[in-house]
Design goal:
This protein has nine helices and eight strands. It has helices spanning 8-18, 72-75, 81-86, 107-116, 171-176, 207-223, 228-243, 251-263, 268-281, and strands at residues 23-26, 89-92, 99-104, 121-124, 129-134, 147-150, 156-157, 167-168. A hairpin with a 4-residue loop joins strand 4 and strand 5 (129-134). The longest helix is centred in the last third of the chain and has 17 residues, at 207-223. The radius of gyration is 20 Å and the shape is globular.
């Protein structure tokens, strides 16, 4: 039986994997492929939500960064082939290869880095540059306007090897992880929003109704082909309009929605903002 011709994305991924760089497929819009059905709600063990990084136990391209692999048998398996055929780009796990990427999203951020960070290997991106350092750290987003950090438990789009000599990860970059970009405290690993407090008896006849609503919202977020910011806001709004005033919605439910959104590349900041905007829209 004739084997299908590997896509350009798969050929690039295999080349990177042979150099020891863990890779994964990205859909249009730079989001990772959605969780496989077998791993819905972290049924495989939820490795990406644990403190110790590690790969998902299943062979499908799920859980964003944790799907990254250097194993050619996984990359070319029947399970992964459809994902590579649909992939628009290749991503890699910087922390998995001992690196940290400072993602500078615009010209102002690039100008700031040139004045405040040691020079290192750089790669042009769509709107700015990736500065790559040797060493790993946590991966907070929005550490300052237009600046994200991608290292452990994160992924970055592969844009080429870059130019320049790669420098060791400086303290100036590590320090960004403990600074807050605004007066509102945020972290990259914990929610800073609370579930609404109900004003009366829950009108829902069964917990199944709430579970179905949360599961449907997760599925819509995971399977959204594009416009992820808009879809996340709409799903948050839908859940809050149905369950936000009766007291049955808990922080565990919110955490599930945030996890689904972050698996599609949304930052914690964007999730918090979408949740706040949805509550404001509903007058909560």
């Amino acid at each position: 039986m004739t084997q299908p011709t590997p896509s350009p994305q798969l050929r690039a991924a295999i080349d990177l994997a042979e150099r020891g760089i863990p890779v994964l497929p990205l859909r249009e819009g730079k989001g990772p492929m959605g969780n496989c059905r077998a791993c819905r709600n972290n049924a495989c063990g939820g490795r990406p939500n644990m403190k110790t990084p590690g790969p998902c136990e299943c062979a499908a391209p799920c859980h964003a960064w944790a799907a990254a692999t250097t194993d050619p048998t996984v990359l070319t398996s029947a399970t992964w082939t459809p994902a590579w055929q649909q992939a628009a780009a290749v991503a890699y796990h910087p922390g998995g290869t001992g690196l940290t990427v400072v993602d500078l999203d615009n010209a102002e951020a690039v100008a700031w880095a040139r004045q405040n960070l040691p020079s290192t290997r750089t790669v042009p991106s769509t709107r700015g540059e990736h500065w790559i350092y040797r060493g790993t750290m946590t991966s907070p987003n929005a550490v300052r306007p237009g600046v994200d950090i991608k290292s452990l438990m994160s992924y970055a789009r592969w844009l080429g090897p870059g130019t320049g000599t790669m420098a060791p990860l400086p303290e100036a970059v590590r320090a960004l992880a403990v600074k807050q970009p605004t007066t509102v405290q945020r972290t990259s690993s914990a929610l800073t929003v609370s579930a609404p407090v109900g004003g009366g008896q829950c009108p829902h006849r069964s917990p199944v109704y709430l579970e179905r609503g949360i599961a449907m919202a997760e599925q819509r977020i995971e399977e959204a082909p594009d416009g992820i910011h808009r879809i996340v806001y709409r799903m948050f709004l839908a859940v809050l309009s149905a369950h936000g005033r009766c007291g049955c919605l808990t922080e565990t439910h919110i955490g599930r929605l945030f996890t689904a959104a972050q698996a599609r590349g949304e930052s914690l900041r964007h999730c918090e903002d979408a949740w706040t905007n949805a509550r404001t829209q509903l007058g909560m």
